[in-house]
Amino acid sequence: MLQGMKRKLSRRQFLVTAAPLMVATAPLAGLAVAGAASADDSRPGSHSGGDMDGMEMTTGAGAGTKPSAYPGHASMIGPSVPSPAGPHEFDALLYPPASLPHQPGRVREYDIVATDRDIEVVNGVTFAAWTYNGTVPGPIIRATEDDLLRVKFHNAGSHPHTIHFHGIHPANMDGVFEIVDPGGSLTYEFPAKPYGMHLYHCHAAPLKKHIHKGLYGAFIIDPPTPRPPARELVMVMHGYDTDGDGANNIYAVNGPAFLYAKHPINVRRGELVRIYLANLTEFDLINSFHLHGEMFRYYPTGTGSAYEYTDTVMLCQGQRGILEIEFSNTGLFMFHAHVTEFTELGWMGYFNVSE
Ligand SMILES: [Cu+2]
């Protein structure tokens, strides 16, 4: 009986439970923000953090608009959003380390430790994750083409794990056959190539389980001459199956659900915004990224100069690419999965574009 009372949140129940907190996207299109600009805006590479705290939001539908009968209905932005994330808690997963120009013989070293960890993914809902360095997704790994990448991996978790990198490397560095048992260690070492946006994940069996539990992350390889300066962001799209039914019931980018709805990302009008995007969502066949109010150049896998000019890209698991955006207008612009079910289950956020 006691087991039956254990909090269980199915995908459908989650929708019902959270429905009053979810806002229809339409009213947000007209949101006007008073006092959204703050000193924090000018911090380069800074996540807006608490900028939205205490701000006043009004619907832009015009004066005399009645307050919503649903107290939470127009609040899918700012402090009342049901995301457990602190203002800068996940900055290390959003802002990559700086790119470095090509330098023969350079070694780029990373330490990664696999651990079991319960993480709060939406207010009051925890997920028994398997993590790289304590977060889902794991840390951003970045190198320049031809750097010697050295990743020292230690398995402090309760199951055998590996790290499998996408890209080019020798067979014995592939993270498929070199299983690292709990308590064990392995150093992966290979020249980073080709330049582009890649990813890494555990490849122990059953693969589906080791990925959906949270063992994945972004892997950027810069071209020998770095890309033009930009406000660089990383977004790893993923999901959580918190009730173990083999389907995701919560979706996110870079950690907890609704992270960038609670803490919109500050950018400036006209500046180059570059997003390194990857899809690691398990169970669902596709995920997607859609931007409101602007178009972007999408470079598939980031390995060449050909791009599509669009506002929506669709990715299967393991697919990734680079987006380049210059916002024409100021204000709040939503971004979200255009698998719209995912939107209301956590995969949505905002850019706060200032002058
Ligand atoms: Cu694993």
Structural description of this entry:
There is one protein chain. The chain has a six-stranded mixed sheet with strand order 12-11-14-19-16-17, with no helix packed on it. 10% of the residues lie in helices and 36% in strands. It has 355 residues and is mainly beta. The protein has seven helices and 21 strands. The protein folds into two domains: 2-60 and 75-93 and 229-354, Cupredoxins -  blue copper proteins (Immunoglobulin-like), CATH 2.60.40; 100-222, Cupredoxins -  blue copper proteins (Immunoglobulin-like, Sandwich), CATH 2.60.40.
Task: Give unreliable regions as ranges.
Answer: 1-10, 12-74
User: At CATH's second level, what is the architecture of the largest domain?
Assistant: Sandwich
The number of helical elements comes to 7
- How far the N terminus sits from the C terminus, by CA atoms, comes to 58 Å
Characterize the quaternary organization of these chains.
Answer: single chain
Strand order of the largest sheet: 12-11-14-19-16-17
Bound small molecules, by name, code or SMILES, are: copper (II) ion
What is the beta-strand fraction? 35-45%
Number of separate domains: 2
**CATH homology group of the largest domain:** Cupredoxins -  blue copper proteins
Structural class: mainly beta
- CATH fold descriptor of the largest domain: Immunoglobulin-like
Assign an overall shape.
globular
* Radius of gyration, taken over Cα atoms and rounded to an integer in Å: 20 Å
| CATH class identity of the largest domain | Mainly Beta
Order of helices and strands: HHHEEHEEEEEEEHEEEHEEEEEEEEHE
Into which percent range does the helicity of residues fall? under 10%
Instruction: Characterize the biggest β-sheet.
Output: 6 strands, mixed
Number of strands: 21
